[in-house]
Design a protein that fits this description.
three-stranded parallel beta sheet, globular, 3 domains, 16 helices, Alpha-Beta Plaits, alpha/beta, 11 strands, about 35% helix, four-stranded parallel beta sheet
Amino acid sequence: MEETPSYFYHALKVDEDICIGCAHCIKSCPTEAIRVKEGKARIYENKCIDCGECFRVCPVKAIYIKQDDFDLLLNYKYRIALVPAVFIGQFNEGIRTSQIYSCLKKLGFTHIYEVEHGVGVLIDMMKNYMSKNPENKPFISSFCPAVIRLIQVRFPSLVENIIHLKVPLDISSLIISQRLIDAGIKSEDIGIFYITPCAAKIAAVKSPVEKNPSPINGVINMDFLYNKVLLMLNNSDNTVEPINHSLTGRDVVWSLTGGEASNFKGRCFAIDGIRNVIDFLDKIENGEIETDGLIEMRVCDQSCTGGVLNPNNRFVAMERLKNRAVYLDENPKNSNQSTFALSKDFYDRIALMMEIEEVKPRSILKLDDNLQKALKMVEHMKKIESLLPSVDCGACGAPTCGAMAEDIIRNQSKIENCIFVNKNTQEFYTIINEIWGDDKIVEL
């Protein structure tokens, strides 16, 4: 059985010219989405959630994240940079936010708009959604796209628990776009570009959880843009303020662990780190945890400050964001704060566009459309797994014996690929060459 067509767009790619087939990635992947074949890492797209763990552990940087070409800006007359607070947190505290804006303007952006401008409006929408849909408890935040994909492919029974609203990134892009259109600017002249700290948000923009296309026209690697701005800072004296610079401390820490959950009543949880998220989702699915509040989940350690495209230390960035939040709350006049309010008509238009109609389960465990046949395949898979040694050595090119058993059922591997099962010496060498390449066997 061949791999079914991909459900998702993926930002994570493998450069086979660089890959050394070291197996770091197959061991780190939380959804067992990677195999080694012919000495190269191969990503099974229907299992991948773009969490970036493989990118993080690859010792030779063979796994890379595909981003949009920066020259894409030239296609638009009005070029909006959607800047997350975590980007500002990458710079030393001695560097003013207005200096960073100035550099972004010199790089070609006509407008600077921080993503967290929409947080206050989104909180109202989320509270309204939770009050109207009590049957969907526990409520799981839709903020982290890797978490959403993880639920779709590994915990499909929990998709209805996801709050069916888009995230601050989407609401900010909709607000700035609508404001420019209402000002008489043609929509085709507007290009919105998001500066991303992770691969999952690139994938989410390219392949949204709902069918409607994203209003964002391009996604830019945060590390790439950070280095460009850093080179310019010494020569940047001009200050540029963003449109309606009205962030509060609450907005700035939204992307930090606990920054979202702290805005809601009831028994709320904030979980970060992919392994912690999986463990918590297991407990929710088994009915071990009940809550009437919000469950905030982020696959990266320390949430967005731990994104794989952040150039600087996550703990330092977290400290800077918390300090910035304190400053904004203590100095509202110095930060040029103003009340961020939308007219009822504008709010209603944005609220309608913020709704997600449906989040579909996309289980990686589906073996066949015919239920009876699928159950037989599961039974056969368990028998195959019982024949394997349960050492999870990875020598077969799969991360675990269970993953290998599934591959065998899908006709993507064979039981002879297990070095503990195959006792034919000559065939063993042939198989090792097929999996790991002809340069891995050492003659003593």
